[in-house]
Amino acid sequence: MMNEKVRETVRAELAEIKKSGLTKEEWPITSPQASHIIVEGRRLLNLCANNYLGLADHPNLIQAAKKALDERGYGMASVRFICGTQDLHTRLEARISTFLKTDATLLYSSCFDANTGLFEALLSKEDAILSDALNHASIIDGVRLCKAARFRYRHMDMDDLEEKLREAKNHRIRIIATDGVFSMDGEIAPLEEICRLAEQYEALVMVDDSHATGFMGDEGRGSIDHCNVMGRVDLVTSTLGKAMGGASGGFVSGRRELIDLLRQRSRPYLFSNALPPMIAAAALAAFDLLEREPDRKKRLWANTQFFREGITAIGLKIKPGVHPIIPVLIGDPMQAKEMSKRLLEEGIYVVPFSFPVVPKGEDRIRVQISAAHDETDLAFALEKLKDAAREIGIIR
């Protein structure tokens, strides 16, 4: 039985979260993840999935998963180095390496695990990590688990990064860690400048490309492709759970020696069950589709441009950029929650983001565009966003 003092402490904290309007609600979905989803029996336009290429319900991925389920079983019931490695895992690692043009790749159950297991395995107290102030929580947690010295540079501020590199000059290994695309704002890291500074100060570069793999850059190889720094980034972490089918699974890809060391020392890799065969098989099918259906990427970017131009014309404030992540900035947690509620009533599924997910005062509705949408969907969304914003008093 829980201690009563502990119970009351937790209840008080939950009450404070509710009072501040920051309670995160969950809505059970009874359909596949697609342009529209079924929630409580209603068909809603889905504007908040990471399903950038619309592959989450693609029949090729479903068929690949079913085939693997029949032939390879449901799960591995083991970690990789005991009896958890199938040829599907090694094929997928090789496929990712070929796609990203890297030496080697290591699969994880998620990119969160990849990021939390990276720094501790590679670095010691003699080393230093230089991390962007707005990096994803998984990078922050990975840095916390490591004994290396920590230098936090101002968000995408290259002058501050250079100053921190000077401060860290006496450390054995220095690694700059950054999101390739920052998930709350859709901002793209200045990777060309980061790589230039890394080369000047003899530092490594690590990029989390979760919100870029599969669709950014000419060949869809992510922000490193988009920023023309292929071959200059030492470690790329990313996910199979967004553009690449939306299920689960993550990876680290990069210099062979670093990947080999992670395979021997990275705790989330060593002590987590191997990725289920059906997910590995579906991920392989997703990489095939990138080559066979390039129009998906083109449709995603056309949809993104259409929506960005439309939301600006309405008069709502968004962060400038080109990415399919489009944060509609509101600035008040209650208004953000009310806008989400109004849109849900009108047939649009979006979620409000408030502190601690984003800084206080930067409350927003984060819209995410997909290749699964068409212009009719997006025009409908723009109309309803305008109506809801007027009703709440965000715009006139």
Write a structural description.
Helices cover 43% and strands 16% of the residues. Helix 10 (223-226) links the parallel strand 9 and strand 10 (235-239). With 396 residues, the protein is an alpha/beta fold. The mean pLDDT is 95. The chain has a seven-stranded mixed beta sheet with strand order 3-11-10-9-6-4-5, with helices on both faces. A four-stranded antiparallel beta sheet has the order 12-13-16-15. It has a three-stranded mixed beta sheet with strand order 1-2-14. Helix 4 packs parallel to helix 13 (277-292), helix 14 packs parallel to helix 16 (375-392) and helix 15 (333-345) crosses helix 16. It has helices at residues 4-19, 59-72, 80-83, 87-100, 111-116, 119-122, 137-144, 158-167, 191-200, 223-226, 256-265, 267-270, 277-292, 295-314, 333-345, 375-392; strands at 36-39, 42-46, 104-108, 128-132, 149-153, 174-179, 181-182, 187-188, 204-208, 235-239, 250-254, 317-318, 325-329, 348-349, 352-353, 364-368. It folds into two domains: 20-49 and 294-392, Alpha-Beta Complex (Aspartate Aminotransferase, domain 1); 59-292, 3-Layer(aba) Sandwich (Aspartate Aminotransferase, domain 2). The chain is built from 16 helices and 16 strands.
Compact description:
By secondary structure, the chain is α/β, with parallel strands linked by helices. It contains 16 helices and 16 strands. The strands form 4 sheets. Strands 3-11-10-9-6-4-5 form a 7-stranded mixed sheet, with helices on both faces. The protein has a 4-stranded antiparallel sheet with strand order 12-13-16-15. The protein has a 3-stranded mixed sheet with strand order 1-2-14.
